Amino acid sequence: MTKPLKKNQKAKELILDAAENLFAYRGFKGTTTREITREAGVPLGLMSYYFGTKEDLYREVIERRSVEHAAAIRASLQSAAEQANGNPTAEMLIRAYFSPLVERSLRGGEGWKSYIHLLSRAANTPRNEPYVESFDKTYVPVVREFIEILKGCHPDADEEAVYWSYYFLSSSIIHILLESGSIDSMSGGKFRSTDLETILDKMAPFFAAGMQRLAAA
User: Fold this and answer.
1) How many CB atoms lie within 10 A of CB 20?
2) Radius of gyration over every alpha carbon of the chain, rounded to an integer in angstroms
3) Looking at residues 71-90, what average pLDDT do you find?
């Protein structure tokens, strides 16, 4: 019984890996189940056997790495708070929030690279699409925790200012993590969208200053 079980688990992981990659770079609607199973090298029937619908497969792809990833973001924010004796600056928090995504994208391997791209796509998908419910379920609580911590940096700021600050920040992060190559083209190759560590170094003070200005308005 053990050998068939291992084979079945391997086939399931192959489907998840293939779906993760295709969803990340072609999107949910641009990917068919036939393409997923072809890339996974398994029969088409196994897709429905293990996952039911494409929506169910998408949900499992999102959730497969979500616990580890969400925990890494929370741990990074906690570490920033501890280093600042409970009073981190907005710049420190922005860096702490974004750095786990950068780390996984750059050094987590091909799977994590695809997953980070997938999260960016999911975050930029209209919320009326039912297949992104799994993303919201997993990551909206993390976002809300981050916003609450950000409020502590500007306790006198209007709630509206904090939420708009996060919205502008998250919109930038979504675009950055897709590594579209737009800055490569604009700069004639002098600067690269794949240089995520440099982007992090420049983005954190930029948005901290913007938040300071908006909070003071």
Assistant:
1) 26
2) 19
3) 95
- CA distances (Å), 130 to each of 66, 100, 143, in order? 18, 27, 20
Domains present along the chain, CATH in parentheses: 2-63 (1.10.10.60), 65-216 (1.10.357.10)
Report the chain's mean pLDDT, rounded to a whole number: 93
**pLDDT tens digit string along 169-199?**
999 999 999 999 999 999 999 999 999 999 9
CA distance 82 to 79: 5
Percent over 90 (pLDDT), the chain: 89
| Cα-Cα-Cα-Cα dihedral sign, residues 13, 17, 134, 197 | positive
pLDDT of residue 7: 57
pTM: 0.91
What number of other Cβ atoms are within 10 A of residue 216's Cβ?
10
Residues in the chain: 217
Residue recorded with tokens 């916003």: 147
Q: Which secondary structure element, helix H or strand E, spans residue 217, and what is its range?
A: none
Confidence (pLDDT) at 2: 37
Nearest CA among 31, 83, 76 for reference residue 54: 31
Query: CA torsion 124→27→136→157, rounded to 10°?
Result: -20
